[in-house]
Amino acid sequence: MSPRLPRLKALALAAALGLAAPAFAGADRCQAGPETGWKPLAELVAKLAAEGWRLRSVEIDDGCYEVKGVDKDGRYHEAYFHPLTLERKGWAH
């Protein structure tokens, strides 16, 4: 067996994975269904304000509400919230 064969296999695998990555890039993180069934954005804003957050921005991203703001302890966060439950689904990067 040629010593180049394992390198070629690794290169082919890396190329295949690189081509597959864009297919997952736009995945629906929260899987919340159509926006017509979502809780109003104002409800999330009120919930976070009651918890002491100062919001800088709120938008829809990957099927979630993405929030950027400062919590009651002064720490900056970028977080995803599920639009049906308003529970935090993870931190944005």
From TrEMBL:
Entry-linked Pfam families: PepSY_2
InterPro entries found in the cross-reference section: PepSY
Signal peptide range: 1-25
Entry keyword set: Signal
Stretches assigned to the PepSY domain: 11-87
Protein name: PepSY domain-containing protein
UniProt source species: Aquariibacter albus
